Amino acid sequence: MTWAAAHGLQVAARSGEAFTFTPAPLAVMPTAYPKVAFEKAKAVADPMARLYANVANDREWLHETLAGVIDADPFTANLLQLHKEVDSPQTMALGIFRSDYMLDGPTGDMLQIEYNTIASSFGGLAQRVGAWHAHSLARLGTEDPFLKAHVEAVTGGAHHGIPENPTTEQLAAGLAAAHKAHGGGTALFVVQPGERNTMDQRHIEYALYSNHQVPAMRRTLAQIAESGRIDATGALVLDGQAVSVAYFRAGYTPDDYPTEQEWAARRMIESSDAIKCPTLAYQLSGAKKVQQALAAPKALDRFLEDQADKDAISASFAGLWALGPEADEESVTAVAEAMEHPERFVMKPQREGGGFNTYGAAIAEKLKVGAHDKSLADSILMQRIMPPPQPQWLLRAEEDPLRCDAVCELGIYTVFLGNATEAPLNDYAGWLLRVKPETVDEGGVAAGYACLGAPLLV
Amino acid sequence: MTWAAAHGLQVAARSGEAFTFTPAPLAVMPTAYPKVAFEKAKAVADPMARLYANVANDREWLHETLAGVIDADPFTANLLQLHKEVDSPQTMALGIFRSDYMLDGPTGDMLQIEYNTIASSFGGLAQRVGAWHAHSLARLGTEDPFLKAHVEAVTGGAHHGIPENPTTEQLAAGLAAAHKAHGGGTALFVVQPGERNTMDQRHIEYALYSNHQVPAMRRTLAQIAESGRIDATGALVLDGQAVSVAYFRAGYTPDDYPTEQEWAARRMIESSDAIKCPTLAYQLSGAKKVQQALAAPKALDRFLEDQADKDAISASFAGLWALGPEADEESVTAVAEAMEHPERFVMKPQREGGGFNTYGAAIAEKLKVGAHDKSLADSILMQRIMPPPQPQWLLRAEEDPLRCDAVCELGIYTVFLGNATEAPLNDYAGWLLRVKPETVDEGGVAAGYACLGAPLLV
């Protein structure tokens, strides 16, 4: 744990402007992970980013696809409305995407859980988790009988080590590319007022300055509403400086918009010539509803040409079904199965951040109203993936280590800079491995369910 | 402060095995420091280390010099007794020395405060303080009107930047050199049970492993007494591993020896063939009494040959006078002056760690008994150095920044490996700058008086 603290693998001990930090929740043991699946996730990162950028640039399709959730999901409705009203002079957008996958034990498939297009977090910490595990393996892997036995048990003996993880540098490089493309004076990190995961963000800020000499300011939406303005050239100006790239680490949940002021700030940023990470369109394209719509037969044909790309992406899609008025025949079949076997499904609302999914008997309860009921329109039904468990020790600061059987979720980061016609940047940007007890349904680290871990490729 | 936390510039928030950390106390502004004085301190590091190693190897002189303090200082008496009793098979010793200096405003001299031969701390953090200030200067030095004005005010305009600070790597390199010279299996960090400054130590441990693949274990004296033994070859064996180098970050204060057990552990280590950092002799040579004795006329002739070395060292000595039965004529004169002008002096007892010196009116009170009184034998009288103050902001976690006029103390680290006939290693190992309000007498960071800062060479 001291290694973690010594290398900035930390979160604030309390929310707000606190200066006391505590190690991030950590999975002590490396997690054996199939090299083939890891490489597949890396390989599909490029077409997946193009897919989502194309979705975001397809205004018509996006609006139509999300039209059905407006009534049931006022937050998405607000974002959509803003997107319809605002016309930005800036066509370039920056995506710091993270595609999350789980292995399905029964089938051996690696299936996408979700595609994050806003505030994909833990990039600043994940790199350090990898370094920590690599350090432990090098330092103790052959000496410590406990770690040695564990590695042998989960890998069967041979392994390919922990993959390099360039998250911090790559995310900073993405922001720097956007900064350069814009030419403005400062990057802007849009942050939540009570953020505890500040260090994750600071690592990126420091790398942005150290590696690219790009300064950044941190502001909440409320602060931006207060002191920001758009000048005659269309630039977003804060404290006398033009913003080159606005990087959102806030704005993804309704809680981030307690008053009209925050919406006004969002509108101002979107209207400006700053490059947004993400734009409203990018954010909207990360909706669960979009994910479900893309999984429909032939849906990918609208956005991608290369068949190999489409096949690779399709192979990573789990079963996904619309609910509410848009539910089709397949939805009805799936709902019927879910009433009988809710353990095979998960119900997901639009909102981001972890902690809001429905599992088990509660699914059957919610589905009682029938697949087409309007109250379900903000949710999708998804195949429940059954990842194979591994023995693990989970460590939270100030708590006893928890011995458990744990499952993991692999995230693959991409940095993408592009507009409707070109994409000067589309790079793999590292990994995140979240590990949680098999018995826990939810997966968010910040929400308190999962720990940060590292894949040991086998 | 988040930068500090992100880069491991931290201390534990509580004592003991806590995992919550808080930034170390920091001086926000760089401290203008004369380049000439800084270079002088660097240059004298080599002969100063040889001087102290020669003192440590001169058993007779050391015992004689310290004989006078035995009655008044039972802790030094115990160390001395152990040194007389124990004969180690290991002649090589490792010194991680730190020579502390203050600038005397009235004379412009750079004068030695003390020479630390055991547990010279903050090497692991000082490097990060330098990096933090260099980062701030690069990031904000030309933009931030506050920092810019400060730098111009204290430097007069031009400066040579903040010197590189290789402390972590150099201290680790010293330990690695000792490890290699010995050939044993593991380094041993001897630590205090309730240590808060663990991160400082961990940085060295991690560098020792990363850069030299030398593993280290951390043990308290009590734990060593419990599980350690000396095998037939003379090796100190802990948990089945032979100790190559025993690095003391404990054992310098009587509080570290609450029972006979801790003394037994110290005896075991000293008796073993492990290379000690420091040996009892090195530790004893760091006594204030030795410092005072070396300042006596011609004292250096016994230990050094080169006149330039002796001159450089002498020039760094402040006025130092014996007290108690050994007080001489000069002591009597100094005591008389101190009764009249106690503000010109400081009274120092043997013990390490900061917080035990006597200042001002209290000096006159203590000296009432007369220069030769036995009760004074554990102390020396020293010229009070009057460093020139500079404006500063001192920052402690969870407290408001303190605006004050501050003075500083420069420490220069040396790593030294040698015995009576050879010294294969004698290297400058970086700097430490401690900054404290002008109005505060004591200087220890761990004791809560000073903050970590960085010199901006002018």
Give an overview of the whole structure.
Chain A is an alpha+beta fold. Chain A has 2 domains: 2-318 and 385-457, no CATH class; 322-384, Glutathione synthase lid domain (Dna Ligase, domain 1, 2-Layer Sandwich), CATH 3.30.1490.50. The first copy, chain A, is 37% helix and 24% strand. In chain A, the strands form 5 sheets. In chain A, strands 3, 5, 6, 16, 17, 18 and 19 form a 7-stranded antiparallel beta sheet that branches. In chain A, strands 7, 8, 9, 10, 11 and 12 form a 6-stranded mixed beta sheet that branches. In chain A, strands 13-15-14 form a 3-stranded antiparallel beta sheet, sandwiched between helices. In chain A, a hairpin with a 5-residue loop joins β9 and β10. In chain A, α10 crosses α11 (260-271). The longest helix of chain A is centred in the first third of the chain and has 18 residues, at 123-140. Chain A is globular. The first copy, chain A, starts with a helix and ends with a strand. The model of chain A has no long low-confidence stretch (mean pLDDT 91). Chain A binds chain B through residues 1-3, 5-8, 10, 13, 18-23, 135, 138-139, 143, 198-199, 202-203, 206, 209-210, 215, 397-398, and chain B through 1-3, 5-8, 10, 13, 18-23, 135, 138-139, 143, 198-199, 202-203, 206, 209-210, 215, 397-398.
